[in-house]
Amino acid sequence: MTTTQELSASPAGSLRSTGKRLDAALLFLLAVVIRCLPWSQVFSAGQVYLFDPDCYIRLRKIMVYLLAFPSPRVHDYFQGFPVGTGVISPPAMEYVIAALALPFRTVHDLQQSLAHLIAVIPPLIGGITVVILYRSLVSRIGRTPALLAGGLLALLPAHIETTVLGRFDNEMIEPLFFLLIFQLSMDARNGHGSTRRWIAAGVLSAVFLTLWRGAALPLVVIGLDLTAGIFMESPDDEPLRTAQGGVLMYLTATLLIAVICVSDIWGTAGVFSATIVSWFHVALFAAAALFLSAAVISARHGVRKQFGITCLGLLVAAALLIALTSRDALWLQLFSGGNSWLDSISQYQRPGGITGWLRNFGFTSLLVPLTIPFLLKTPSIPLPLRRQLIILGMYTLLLATLRERFSAYFALACAAMGGVAFHILANHIARRMSISDCAKKTWAAILLVVVLAPTIGFDTALARTGIAFPFRGDIEETMIWLREHTPPAGDPLRPQQFPDYGVMARWDYGGWIETVAQRPSVATNYGTETHGMAEAASFMLARNDDEMAAVLRKNGVRYLIVDKVIGDIPMYARLIGRQGHFFDRQPGNGNAYSPTAEAFDLVSSRLFFADGSQRMLGGFTFRAVEGVRMVHESPSNAKVGGFPWEVKRLKIYEFCPGTTIIVHARPGETVTISQPIETNQGRRFDYVNEKTASADGVVRFTLVYSRRQGPDSVGATGPALITAGSRHADINPSSDTPADTVYHIRLN
Hints:
Blueprint: H1 3-6, H2 18-35, H3 39-42, E1 43-44, E2 47-48, H4 53-68, H5 92-100, H6 110-141, H7 143-155, H8 157-160, H9 174-188, H10 194-211, H11 216-232, H12 237-263, H13 279-300, H14 304-324, H15 330-336, H16 340-343, H17 353-361, H18 364-376, H19 383-402, H20 407-433, H21 437-452, H22 456-464, H23 474-485, E3 502-504, H24 510-515, H25 533-540, H26 545-554, E4 557-562, H27 569-576, E5 583-585, E6 593-595, H28 597-600, H29 603-610, E7 615-617, E8 620-622, E9 628-633, E10 651-655, E11 659-664, E12 670-678, E13 684-692, E14 698-703, E15 715-716, E16 720-724, E17 727-731, E18 742-746
Helix pairs in contact: 2-6, 2-7, 4-5, 6-7, 6-9, 7-20, 7-21, 9-10, 10-12, 11-12, 11-13, 11-19, 12-13, 13-14, 18-19, 18-20, 19-20, 20-21, 25-26, 25-27
């Protein structure tokens, strides 16, 4: 059988055949099973572990919308405390699940039940996406290449990671909606019911935006294809009817988004921003509809090329104008860089070299450009489909090379074009070697294994150890302690009520703090888009106790979570425009850097590395920190070298006034206060603070530690010793000593 014969379209109704139903079922099962391999990591000891903090944010949002139903407009003081955050990302996915859960609102421990449910949704979405790809191709290029394409998508790590068990986030559903719209646009070209299909594509485009605010980016593929159809095909009625359908699609999307903006269902009336469904998207889709309309008119009057170039230039100018008049440039910085926060997020960085690229795609990425010549010379594949596949491949390749965030879209192109390429190669081998159809399929399977060889390590690791769930272990233990051993600040499921205090930590802990610890977070996973990021940066870069206290007091912070954030210090510095020399290149060690004394002298570094106590390390002295006391530390040691004492991975400090101790000594004399401390992990250290007496012989200390109350607490195991020269005195505040107590100690 020749390539042309094999790639010809299937007969009408063949999708209902037994063989193709079996193909779809097997592909679905394969995709779901692979994505469920980390089952023991997600469901363990009666607990559910979601992939990252974003998933926990969505879990809490479902509960919030459930309790506030039917209103989706909830101002959330638990995010970006004390300012709070409105509806900053499209809430459709969480809102729909909340609506479906309404009949079960009184179920005991509903949040835990919902956690079980949303953990298994991503693999199901992944399996459906694979089946949709197969169904989109099988009637157009044949059963074998469609089956190969579906198998590729089921096995590519770039798509597995976005739909793996426990990863309930918008990334899981984006390729599915894109494929649905892509398929509708392909079906609409057949003419039968095309108007309904174009309208349906417009409706799904608007819905896509309510699921992910960046949906306009992949939808560019359809716009590019429609434009190419007008200016590259012969001037008959078919490409013009297609373009008119595209106008209908974009106008439908424009109308629906305008309804969202006018009705103000999310509290974003008057907003013009790319980071939320707003009038920005109304203008964007309207500009696309206007461009296609102008292109159709120009084609009908025989001036396609000249007018098309003019229209394209006007569209680019309009898009730039819309972008520049948007209230933020975050989405532009997504590609151009320059946003310190975005550049620090792994998925918004560029792919990390050839090793990471092969791990995500194997050799299938090479098939995208190599398949283009075959597609151009395969007349049995309809021209619109050939053009769509080429545009899809090149555009998603560009996105994936710019930011790893878009790898799942490129996986669609790799799978679709890979299926075609495998089948063409297998047919070529079959013709040359005169082998049977069964042997030909065997060759295709062998080629599939070879092409996917670099991804095998990912698949075996997924089966053996699952994927990285950073929450498990120290972070989980810390969040549970914070929830169970600190006073409630408010109700995280009714976050519109102003809480009593907030928690300061690095921004990517926000989702865990809000959902698991059930405490308001200052810095959140929305980073620079809401309150808290600059405040966290100011705390991380505080150089003395006064700077630290000012940030904490201004933001109503009671507890701090500190960890090894020293590598993020340059990012925080760029974020708030702080100048500093924080790292030196290590001589003779390539790109390795070591922290400078300036980096170690920051308050956050002193709290993490030296427990806020004065300590010597080589020729460097960690200065003491006053005004905060450690209340908890996690079990595991941090991965730091060169320290003669233990450094735990996570530590919680409480911001508290403490007891004031005024020491009267001789002018210019060195006065030291020392107090033995034992942590909840049984680790012991001395809190030491050393100061020089003023001209009038006065030194002021703040003592925050009281007697240790039990094995799970952090506290003093003895009195505080105050020394000046050979003179000394001790003081032993109890746990019920008032915070505003002032002690006067005379050592003069």
